[in-house]
Structures are given as structure tokens and as C-alpha cells.
Amino acid sequence: MKALMLGWEFPPHILGGLGTASYGLTRGMAQQEDMQITFIIPKMHGDEDQSFLKIIGAGNVPIVWKENSWDYVNSRLGSVMSPDTYFWLRDGIKYDFRRIGTNDLGCVGFSGRYPDNLLEEISNYEAVVSVLAHQLEFDIIHSHDWLTYPAGVFAKQISGKPLVIHVHATDFDRSRGNVNPVVYDIEKRGMDTADHIITVSNLTRQTVIEKYHQPPYKVTTVHNAVEPLAHPEEFAKKPRQDKVVTFLGRITMQKGPEYFVEAAHSVLQRTKNVRFVMAGNGDMYNAIVKLAAQRRIADRFHFPGFLRGQQVQQMLAQSDAYIMPSVSEPFGISPLEAMQVGTPSIISKQSGCAEILTHAIQTDYWDIDGMADAIYSIVKYPAMYKSLSELGREEVNRITWYDAGIKVRKVYEKVMKK
Question: What does the pLDDT read at residue 232?
């Protein structure tokens, strides 16, 4: 079976959980003997792992005819795309996209991020996918998150192939209910057009059914998982005097960073031998730094910025507790990553991963006293720490992307029978 997958992030160049989930799911699905995946991302860097799938960078696909020699195309794109593929795609351009600014190869540039002109990049990505939809062979379209829904809808119209959209989050999650109508309309149209909808949790499934008015039979939950560690023995904790409690993620209102600071303040009223790490960036960064100063705990707080890859695993491994106090978290892979290296996790009941984790402490996101009690218990009582560490590691090692991939495959087969 051939799947055309549309996504916005892919490791090692990721900005959040979407890229991690895209990698894990495709790797898990690729273990199925007849599964072939072509994954389209806006910007390709050339160091992506293509051992189990094919990746095409949208910024390397011509959407406007430009006359160029084979050698010139090779000098410009040779590291990420063969000139023969470039010319084959150029010959398949069906629409007039000259209104879109392109370079000397007829390709449009992408930031590979979430820029201020994001809606323009989404539209340009849609144009690129239209060229690919005419040329590539595939059985099904799989569109990850709202940024790729318009491209998925267009690809379905062109090819007549079924469309599955994968809801990793909705604007209700990102905005705490202050929904952007433009984003909502994109999400709603994608869901209405899709042949089936995959959500990362039952929590998200209910949002899709209730807020986007989708029939329950059309929406299936496939929980996220975690990629196995090749060498878990590398992540042993180093002995030290102070305990470390970590928050890792975007510092935005969705993630509840202020509750982490307030819980830290409460813990530090009872013990001083604890340090708190808030790793990440976001629009609330300055406000959170100020809040820590106002609570007079800035000397116990550390802000290392956005971490990637091995840095994330090392940070989680050196932590004595991990906390995810999200106000609305469709899933949340980071607690699984923490538990995988033996770090006990505290998660909000308002997170999708709470549906599958029994050996993580769960509190309401607003329950600062509950979070503080959980942190204090983990850092002060070795038996509590040891139990959560061992049982948590065993639990997450049973949550695999291969199993998630099998569930996605069943969705594919269901819609292809229609």
C-alpha cells in the first residue's frame, strides 16, 4: 500500500511534538511489509532519515516552468533531489501558479517553521502538493494537522483517492477556547472533506465530534507512542545534592507554565534542595521569568531554552521528576519520554496521555497544591521515586509505534473499501 503523507515537521528539524509523532508513526508503519510512505515536508535539509520512507521537500518541487540545464539543477538540488525527478515533476505542472513568487528553478521557498506569514506558506504548500498529486502514485492521502489539511483536500480532489486527516491538536487546545475563526474554518473543512479522522486521544475525539460536528463513526482514536531507546544505559542519573524537577515544552498558555511556577513556589516553602528547569520557548517566556522573580524563587529556576534530540533525553534523564501541567493537551509525548529514562512523571488529567498511563501521577492542571504534593513526595521519599521510576519505564516500553501503525493501517483499509 502506498501512502502520500503530508506533514509540517520531521526530525531532526522539529519545533514540537508534531515532528516527533510523525517520525514515530511512519517508522512504526514502515515495519509493515507492503507499506510505502512518501512524506512531504515544507523544507528539506538533507539530513533527514530516509531509511524507511521517502521524503520530498516542498521547496524543491517546481510549480512554475523555468528553463534550466540538468547540470544547473544538479548543482542546486542534487543533495536533496535528483535532477531527473525535478524535470519529471516540472513536466507535470497542470496549473498556472505564476502569481506565487518562485526562484530560478520555479520553486517556492519555505521557512520550515511557523512564520508570521504562515497562512501564505500553507497556501503555497497546497500548490506544491497539487503538482505531486498529479504525478505520484499512491493509494491514500494522510494529512497531519491543520496546516496540511488544505493540501490534503486538494490532493483528494485531484486524485480521487481517500483522505485521512490526523488531528494532533485543534485550535480549541492551542487557544484555551479563544479560537481563531480562520484556523477553525480550515480545520472544519478538512474534517468535513476527510473520509476518516484520526485523533491522538479520546479527549481530542470528543472535541472533534462536539466542536466540529463530526459523526462519531467517522472518528477513530490512535494514541501516540514512544520510540524505543537504542542504548537506555546511557541515561543514568548523576549524583548531586539538589533534586531537579523539569517542565519541557512550549511556554504558552496551553501548556500551563504558570501552574508549574506556583507549584514550585509551594514546594520551596517546604524544602530548599530542589531546582526547577523550564526548557522551551514561547510567547509567555518573559511573563514566566517575571513570575518566578515575583515569587522570589528565580535563584532556583533555570531556563535553558529549546532543546532538541539527545538534549531532551539527557535533560529528562537527569531530572528527578517531570511535570506536564497542560490546560489542554491532546496527547503529550514528553511524559512517555521521561518515564522511558526512569524519570517519574506528573501529568494533568486534561491530557490525552492520561488515558493510557497508569504509573504517572495525575492532577488537575489548576490543582497547584496537588502538583506540589506530588513533586514533594517524589523528591523526598526514595521508595515513591523508585516505584514510579521502575513501573513507569516498564509501562511505556509496552506502548509502541508499531501497534499505533497497525491501527492506522486498519483505518486505511476501512476507507479504501468504501
Answer: 73
Which DSSP string do the residues of 72-86 spell out, in sequence order?
HHHHHHTTTS-HHHH
- Sequence-separated (6 or more) residues with CB below 8 Å from residue 286: none
Cα→Cα distances 148→12, 119, 183, 213, Å: 20, 11, 12, 20
Reduced to 3 states, what is the DSSP secondary structure of residue 219?
A: strand
Quick one: residue 25, left, alpha or beta (phi over 0 = left, psi -120 to 50 = alpha)?
A: alpha
Site of grid cell 538540488: 77
Q: Give the CATH class of 232-396.
A: alpha beta
Q: For residue range 80-100, list pLDDT tens digits in order.
A: 999 999 999 999 899 999 999
Cell of 26: 511512519
**Arithmetic mean of pLDDT, 212-240:** 89
Q: What is the pTM of this model?
A: 0.93
* Amino acid code (one letter) for 46: G
Using one digit for the tens of pLDDT, what is the confidence trace for 238-282? 888 899 999 998 899 989 999 999 999 999 999 999 999 999 999
Contact 409/32 with Cβ under 8 angstroms?
yes
2-225+402-416 CATH choice from 3.30.43.10, 3.40.50.300, 3.20.20.140, 3.40.50.2000:
3.40.50.2000
DSSP 8-state assignment for residue 229:
P
381 and 388 Cβ atoms separated by less than 8 Å? no
Task: Give the distance from CA 294 to its chain's centroid.
Answer: 33
Helix (H, G, I), strand (E, B) or coil at 362: strand
> Would you list the domain boundaries of the chain?
2-225+402-416, 232-396
